[in-house]
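Progress note, sequence design subtask.
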């Protein structure tokens, strides 16, 4: 967790409070219910005296007719109060959960690619599930029971003083002693709980990684290694949880012990006053009943501090994310651009992820409708170069221009609307094939989707599924081959009909046969678009108008296939390498 200043923390607490305050009238109604509960508790303690003194000692028949119906009425109202209180407070708590989850999701979605590369998916998921829940329990149990318990304590204290103020004064002196362990244990709980939640996040990200990568684990026989890693994590989580349990559960026995001392004192002193005739049995028991009833709300108040500490720790983790700003920001005078053929220019572009420059002084102009192939050994910076166009990252120096306009002066949404991307890993979502192709555009006409799938050479295999375009990707499990998934991705890019196209090793993971189909689909896709095609296999870029060779983040060579071969340089070397591996034979 990042270190945060007191001012920031104060601001965070204010924001949490403002979330709660939005539910003002529900809180107000809940407070009414709490008053009913508190009053019913106090009245029950109060009634002990007339029950004992009037009914049992004085044998007063009139009181016998009044008190039982009053007791029924009190418990009826108390039940209503409990229900209303629970319902209202949980309504508030759950609404806050929803608000927090929604805004976290929206915020996380807008964070740049670099954020997702740094953060672990499982840990992020844990923020949205576990941490948000902890805040809910802070709000709906802790925050609300404070008020209820305070009201109850006030009501009972009034009864105590009314019955025997001298005895009450003595009892009140003991209270501060009971509060000391509450505060101390609260601190400890907060510390341990932060550790627990971080361990939980670590566990989720481990699970996510090993479930997604299960195939590799099996293939490399890493099961027992991963098992050991997992057991280590659950063991350290166990230790942390037990520490939290110790801190949490020590506070109540200590309180109980202090309470026991108090009660012993009351019995001694109070009993003496009854025996000497200074007080009545009814008064004593009414007093005693109120003191015993005090125990529950006071104990809850001590637990309250623990859950507030846990909740604040969770809130800190959530605000750590909410306060993170995206470094990819729109210029305040950003304009949107039309959907039309565009030229793309790199002007003295430098880029780095960390210290080292990954792209060095790139100057490149791609005309509207031109197909540019980018080749180079793995790690030379090809993906990095094309990632600058949709502003997944921003340049360190220089500029990327579209039709002469710096892309930082174009709205992000209209910029990204101009670009379709097909990458090596075909990312599809667990929706129907139709929705995957339409990709967020529910208005897309069925004919357009069929047409796109035909141009992508995907129509035939989609058509053969029993549910056709309505087949849900997830239900297919592993049944879609790499080539089939890739062709759905191409159909998606076709339907987007964007003027700029980025193909990042779109065919690298395919076998020769599906590569040929995908290749044809890609040729359909490229028509009339400004295209950047990164190809691992030089055999697949025969249609490019121009080829650039990237080497160590610089443009080493540039030209047509024939011109580059004649230069006998980097390109020639790459070509020779593939040719001797029998990969370039279809060139
Ligand atoms: N997110 C990242 N953070 C740090 N370094 C990165 C990141 N992505 C890529 N790199 C580094 O930048 C260089 C270029 O990577 P990349 O553009 O993916 O190469 P190519 O696509 O040509 O194989 C490599 O040295 C790679 O290790
Ligand atoms: Mg790459």
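Output:
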């Amino acid at each position: 967790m990042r270190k945060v200043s007191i001012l920031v923390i104060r601001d965070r607490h204010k924001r949490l409070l403002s979330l709660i305050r939005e539910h003002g009238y529900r809180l107000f109604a809940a407070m009414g219910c709490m008053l009913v509960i508190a009053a019913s508790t106090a009245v029950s303690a109060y009634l002990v005296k007339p029950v004992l003194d009037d009914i049992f000692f004085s044998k007063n028949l009139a009181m016998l007719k009044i008190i039982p119906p009053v007791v029924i009425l009190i418990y009826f109202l108390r039940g209503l109060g409990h229900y209303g209180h629970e319902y209202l407070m949980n309504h508030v708590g759950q609404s806050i959960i929803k608000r927090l989850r929604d805004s976290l999701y929206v915020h996380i979605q807008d964070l740049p690619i670099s954020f997702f590369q740094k953060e672990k998916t499982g840990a992020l998921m844990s923020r949205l599930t576990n941490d948000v829940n902890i805040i809910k329990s802070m709000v709906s149990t802790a925050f609300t029971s404070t008020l209820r318990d305070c009201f109850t304590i006030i009501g009972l204290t009034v009864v105590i003083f009314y019955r025997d103020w001298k005895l009450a004064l003595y009892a009140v002196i003991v209270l501060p002693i009971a509060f000391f362990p509450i505060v101390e244990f609260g601190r400890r709980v907060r510390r341990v709980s932060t550790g627990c939640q971080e361990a939980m996040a670590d566990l989720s990200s481990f699970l996510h990684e090993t479930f997604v990568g299960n195939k590799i684990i099996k293939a490399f026989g890493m099961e027992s290694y991963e098992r050991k890693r997992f057991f280590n994590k659950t063991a350290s989580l166990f230790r942390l949880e037990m520490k939290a349990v110790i801190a949490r559960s020590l506070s109540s026995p200590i309180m109980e012990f202090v309470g026991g001392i108090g009660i012993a004192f009351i019995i001694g002193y109070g009993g003496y006053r009854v025996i000497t005739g200074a007080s009545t049995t009814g008064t004593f028991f009414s007093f005693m009943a109120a003191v015993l009833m005090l125990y529950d709300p006071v104990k809850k108040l001590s637990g309250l501090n623990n859950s507030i500490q846990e909740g604040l720790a969770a809130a800190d983790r959530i605000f750590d994310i909410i306060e993170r700003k995206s470094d990819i920001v729109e210029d305040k005078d950003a304009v949107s651009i039309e959907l039309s053929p565009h030229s793309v220019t790199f002007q003295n572009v430098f880029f780095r992820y960390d210290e080292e420059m990954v792209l060095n002084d790139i100057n490149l102009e791609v005309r509207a409708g031109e197909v540019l192939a980018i080749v180079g050994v793995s790690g030379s910076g090809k993906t990095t170069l094309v990632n600058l166009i949709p502003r997944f990252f921003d340049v360190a120096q220089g500029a990327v221009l579209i039709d002469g306009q710096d892309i930082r002066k174009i709205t992000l949404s209209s910029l990204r609307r101009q670009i379709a991307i097909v990458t090596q890993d075909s990312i599809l979502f667990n929706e129907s094939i139709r929705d995957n192709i339409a990709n967020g555009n529910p208005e897309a006409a069925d004919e357009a989707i069929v047409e796109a799938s035909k141009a992508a050479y995907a129509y035939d295999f989609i058509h053969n599924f029993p549910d056709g375009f309505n087949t849900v990707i997830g239900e297919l499990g592993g049944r879609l081959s790499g080539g089939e998934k890739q062709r759905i991705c191409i159909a998606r890019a076709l339907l987007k009909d964007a003027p700029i196209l980025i193909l990042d090793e779109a065919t690298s993971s395919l076998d020769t046969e599906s590569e040929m189909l995908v290749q044809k689909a890609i040729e359909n896709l490229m028509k009339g678009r400004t295209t950047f095609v990164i190809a691992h296999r030089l055999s697949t870029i025969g249609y490019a108008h121009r080829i650039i060779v990237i080497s160590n983040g610089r443009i080493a060579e540039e030209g047509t296939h024939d011109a580059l071969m004649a230069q006998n340089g980097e390109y020639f070397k790459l070509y020779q390498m593939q040719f001797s591996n029998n990969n370039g034979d279809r060139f």
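Residues 382-383, 504 surround magnesium ion (ligand 2) (CB under 6 Å). Work on this subtask will continue into the next period as scheduled.
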